[in-house]
Design goal:
The structure is a single chain. The chain is of the alpha+beta class and 354 residues long. It folds into two domains: 210 residues, Hypothetical protein, domain 2 (Endonuclease III, domain 1), CATH 1.10.340.30; 118 residues, Nucleoside Triphosphate Pyrophosphohydrolase. It has 14 helices and eight strands. Strands 1, 4, 5, 6 and 7 form a five-stranded mixed β-sheet that branches. A hairpin with a 4-residue loop joins strand 6 and strand 7. Helix 2 crosses helix 3, helix 8 packs across helix 11 and helix 9 crosses helix 11. It starts with a helix and ends in an 8-residue tail after the last helix.
């Protein structure tokens, strides 16, 4: 069965697979690695322009390791899951410091690098070196869960173990680079999450999910929990010269390491905002003007954002706090900032009557 699956996938790939993606050119371990990290939880069409811009700025592991973190985050801004960018640079630094600037050709050593798991390490070995290694990204999980009718959510240990066994079983010893791309492409192009195109699938004849009428049910979804609703004041403090106060977020957590606007708890009333802002930020300000509220959804909660304009009398002085900085309003969107903040700063402001 293993040879049959691999043979059919490779024959399909030769006719229909994607062979001209940017990371297919000059498949170095570095280029494969960056593409794999970007593609985690992000569609190919979204990744392509980010990947090309990232490669233009950081063409090799050395340039990434030596770059200012703000520069790395700026080139990641809009892709989300920003821990990926921070981990990418940490791993690049480790490759330079511990491996002489060359990615190891060993699965265990690759997995020891920050942000590289079993599947990503295998993709680097298979795609860059042609070494037999089994991958199991989201697309591959879906293909294997349906082909073998594996029940349960793939995040569960027993289900994941079963999927890894199937992945190992089907990975061929020859053309492993093409095979890993083939099974990813099948999941992305044919065995899609919704409305899979079973009529054109090379594995349809003996797909157990299709035979049992379970293609819509497999793989099973993660049990849903209601996302909590949170709120925050977002402070747009501007001085008379048009500079905007920006705050660097903590390195871990939501939007970690990015520049954003200062936030305050919504337990504080609008009238109290200027006083609390001065106490918390050391910035004297007044004239609080609320703008239109908007909601942003994270993976584990919804955040209702209440933007408020505040005026800082005079021209801002140099900040003592390195996590606070004045930035010309027109330049703020060019920083490494979260997409919702960039959208807020670039769209026309709409005041809200409270």
């Amino acid at each position: 069965m293993a040879d049959s699956v691999a043979d059919r996938l490779l024959a399909w790939y030769d006719q229909h697979g994607r062979k001209n993606l940017p990371w297919h050119e000059d498949r170095t371990p570095y280029r494969v690695w960056v593409s794999e990290i970007m593609l985690q939880q992000t569609q190919v069409t979204t990744v392509i322009p980010y990947y090309e811009a990232f490669m233009a700025r950081f063409p090799d592991v050395k340039s990434l390791a030596e770059a200012p973190v703000d520069d790395v985050l700026q080139h990641w801004s809009g892709l989300g899951y920003y821990a990926r960018a921070r981990n990418l640079q940490k791993a690049a630094k480790a490759v330079m410091a511990d491996h002489g600037g060359e990615f190891p050709k060993d699965q265990e050593q690759l997995e020891a690098l920050t942000g590289i798991g079993r599947s990503t390490a295998a993709a680097i070995l298979a795609q860059a070196h042609g070494i037999r290694a089994s991958i199991l990204d989201g697309n591959v999980k879906r293909v294997l869960a349906r082909y073998h009718a594996v029940h349960g959510w793939p995040g569960q240990t027993a289900v994941l173990r079963a999927l890894w066994e199937h992945a190992e079983q089907h990975t061929p010893h020859e053309r492993v680079r093409d095979y890993t791309q083939a099974i990813m492409d099948l999941g992305a192009m044919v065995c899609t999450r919704r409305k899979p195109d079973c009529e054109h699938c090379p594995l349809a004849d003996d797909c157990e999910a299709r035979a049992q009428g379970l293609t819509a049910a497999l793989p099973e979804s993660k049990p849903k929990k209601a996302k909590p609703e949170k709120e925050t004041w977002l402070l747009m403090i501007e001085d008379d010269a048009g500079n905007l106060l920006m705050e660097r977020r903590p390195p871990s957590g939501i939007w970690g390491g990015l520049w954003s606007l200062p936030e305050l708890d919504t337990a504080i009333t609008l009238d109290e905002l200027p006083e609390v802002a001065e106490r918390e930020l050391g910035i004297a300000c007044d004239d609080a003007q609320p703008l239109s509220v908007f909601r942003h959804t994270f993976s584990h909660y919804h955040l209702h954002i209440h933007p408020v304009r505040l005026r800082h009398a005079g021209t801002a002085a140099e900040m003592d706090n390195s996590d606070l900085a004045w930035q010309p309003r027109e330049d703020a969107p060019t920083l490494g900032i979260p997409s919702p903040i960039r959208k807020l700063l670039t769209q026309p402001e709409q005041t809200t009557l409270l």
